[in-house]
Amino acid sequence: MAKRFQPGIVSANDLLSGAVIYLAADGTWVSTMSKAEFITDAERADERLALAETQPEIAVGAYLAPADNSDAGPVPNHFRESFRAEGPSAPARKSWGYANA
Amino acid sequence: MLDAQNNPTRTYLDRRVEEFRAQVNRRIDGSLTEDEFRPLRLMNGLYLQLHAYMLRVAIPYGTLNADQLDVLAEISERWDRSYGHFTTRQNIQYNWPKLPDVPDMLARLADVNLHAIQTSGNTIRNVTADPLAGAHADELMDPRPVAELIRIWSTDHPEYQFLGRKFKIAVTGSPNDRAVTKAHDLAVRIVEKDGEIGYQILVGGGLGRTPVVGRVIREFLPQADLLPYLEAVLSVYNLAGRRDNKYKARIKITVNEMGLEEFSTRVDEAFARIRPEFSGADQDLLAELQTAFAAPELAPRDDAAYHAARAADPVFASWADVNLREHFAEGYAIAMISLKPHGGVPGDANAEQMRVVAELARKYGQNEVRVTQEQNLVLPHVAKADLPAVFGELKAHGLATANAGLASDIIACPGMDYCALATARSIPVAQQIAERMAENEIDVGEMAIKISGCINACGHHHIGDIGILGLDRAGVENYQITLGGDAGPDMKIGEKTGPGFAYDEVADAVERLVHAYLDLRHDGELFRDTISRTGPEPFKSALYDEEKANAA
Ligand code: SF4
Where is this region: Disordered (chain A) (predicted)? Predict the structure, then answer.
């Protein structure tokens, strides 16, 4: 049985850096979730995932991440996607602060 | 220890690096798909996590020399964010490498005989051992020659590159198990019987989704039978282990489904077949390794300076009380270097700290550093007379927290701050608890708090006095508490207490447990003694009834 469709965005990791990326409406990949295309139906989701599949030199592991829409664009509606969007939470960054951080 | 210049595996490592470099290039230019590339990168320890790649580098049996630690620091500066994370399986993880840089990182590692081979994938993983090997007074025999023999035998072994699932091996030579042997797929305990050294072999241990305490399959195996016996175990597992279901593919399930007796019978049959193939070359190698790992010559040293420093500086005295372990040599000590500053990220060390420890090892520590399953570092051979100087350096670099083995010496996996498999965060929970524990922990005494960010249990939560498992309950982080686990020689799996706690309730809950322990304990009782005497009820009541009372 197919899973019930949930609106969201297409996200993946960048092949070279591993960073979190999102698929925008114009078919480019962006690093900010709010600039991603908000997808509201299953058919469009399949199309966009198919597009991501054709770009293995950019995107790794593309999937449909559930999200809400807002005036400012898509926003996470689950904490996992919040962490993906924002990076490790502040307390976990304590070891950083040296070169390249 | 193998020295970097006369490195017999250097050619092999160079070949592997160049092979991987070519694979990375082919992935980037599009000739390999991700599905084709993933198993290749995993064979080289390269994961793709939440925000970045992660490179896991093996520290075989947790032993490093100063040059190796310097290179680990250098790699973090050149290609990562100037820190590394030490794990419960004696690995170091870099959290921010870029794919095109990874071959260079591996090449630099190869310069000092380190690598990331078999730190991932369904193969025999980094062989771990007692981190205090060759140093602790309670040891029967240094386990590292055996661990190295197993490592040489299992590295790139063609039969074991595609096992049904990962396979973890640990070795200890001490009756006070510091290598969590019963949580391993296979473990070797060096034992003595009638004056003869041999091995007790355990199988089928593991944590994760289905925690199982490893069981003895052979009470006493003669030394010369070790590798053929391991081959026999692996061959039975390789054939009988399930490949239809990832969650049932570990040897613990095979042993449980088949029964230990039947499994053991099949191993004996395989052993009879395999044993004649071993001509004794492995034993010659073992003898060489035993020479290579011979204990350092430790000149007798007067420890008056140590006692004078203790008397003069209470902070030093308290660090020494908590962080030193008994060395086999008079006038020497094992110094535990805590990577758990109160409020810090458990197991993280920055590049500067790694260099400081390397330099201390050179100057005062026979050039040796160890990495523990508790995610700390160790200087295994320090003259007591040098400890004040060592302590001063550690203190100047945030490495002198006096909490080894105490409540704030928390094991925590990377959790959802880094790990793609996580269901909740671990690091900030550990930080909150450590800060609460700081004040009172000397009084509380030995206490193991362990936190995992998902059911895979990399944070060993099942075997903590207090275990914490982070879950996703309907889109919210929720933390389940287990009590009464024990990571020692008689490993015990903790019991779940009841409903979980919200992210901002966990530290309070742990504090209530610790207070309950202080109220209930008899003189000299450890947490695990108290709870086995009282049963879990009073602790559950502290967790849940007090919460209700507070809410009312
Ligand atoms: S226990 Fe889970 S969250 Fe933690 S490191 Fe292991 S897989 Fe990741």
Answer: 69-101
